[in-house]
């Protein structure tokens, strides 16, 4: 729905200030009349943010979409106060006329319409801020102005705004200001001078902050056809998983068509407990399963288990576990404080014993597997394939990815540009859904991204090169690179320094598609510099 609509707008000839204002008015009115679609309209504005046209009264000077949109939002925000004054004037006139009932209905209808416009405008402003088209100082000004007026309409708008952007404003530097806002809100709730509805709304926002801005119920917006299909697919996969789990649980059970486990006959001999005084009856838990903890496998009972379900989903965790077993045993041995010399006679040579029995892994924390002292370097194609299978096909957990990397790559390979680029490519491919970024997938993989990219500008630069190459292979979809940049910056995966290094890089090997890529993220870098300047001013 969004892409065809966006194409219709970009196909329009918008070459004068009057036409640009007309487009802004149309989009703005739709956004505040249909707050459920404010995210889509905000994204549309984000795509048009860099559009420039000549000014009518100043030849040679241009004006851009973002500035005119900001003026329109500010005008609507200030208009609310003018409406309040107009309503008060109408109320006074109403008290002195004969057709009081009819005019009262008209006044209430006008007030209700104004309230809907106010809340729609506030929600739209919040969505624009989340896309970095508006800055933090502007948002703080809005919060302060709304908090000063203790009328119900202003406080309702305040609640809507903080619900939308509170999480983005509530970081370490801004915490003192946020504390002041919420102290004032708590005071309003306690004074009980506002309506119950508004007090409950204020309390909901206060509780939302206490729970780290994690809502108890997800905000239900309109669903696209793609989302409905995706939910149906997830539901189907969940059903298949349950069936698979039931089959695994039945593996140890006795069936009519399989052999029964041979029963153990009761021994007639009695045991004298006094002979084994150190043994105490353990507390058994019938839910305990034997086998490697991390693989979480159910083992078959004798010949009765059968092979009713496929083991394909269990190969990866079992393989990773076996590769790590010698290290875990070695670590346990070293922690015990034991020494092999304690078990040898004086005439036996310790090193010969360790070598013959292949026990080198018990002597040093950095020892590798005795059977594989070095790890062969994987070819680039195989490395890409393996990582994409883990992330896109097997949907491996972060722990399984860490295990695979540790088992197959050494430190030099992990820090190589080949691995870093392959990892970023696989993560971004998984998060790319119909040329849109699924931020939930990026957030799910944050432990992996932070482990291998965090606090290292050079590694982050390799990640950006990989992302640029991926966008080229996808034929440069509009705004996809910008959406990835927004997400990676918001989640602290890529630092500002790394973004600036990528922007100014003249590396000949990294120039394919660089021009188009730079143009598509112009708005991102404009916002990044403006935010930096405002931060310095504050």
From TrEMBL:
InterPro entries for the chain: ARM-type_fold (IPR016024), MIF4G-like_typ-3 (IPR003890), W2_domain (IPR003307)
GO molecular function (one): translation initiation factor activity
W2 domain residues: 373-538
Keywords in alphabetical order: Coiled coil, Translation regulation
Cited PROSITE patterns: W2 (PS51363)
GO BP, sorted A to Z: regulation of translation
Gene3D superfamilies in the record: 1.25.40.180
Stretches assigned to coiled coil: 90-120
GO CC terms, sorted: eukaryotic translation initiation factor 4F complex
CDD domains assigned to the protein according to its UniProt record, in alphabetical order: W2_eIF4G1_like
Presence of keyword Metal-binding: no
Stretches the record annotates as Disordered: 361-381
Comp. bias intervals (Low complexity): 364-375
Protein name: Eukaryotic translation initiation factor 4 gamma, 3a
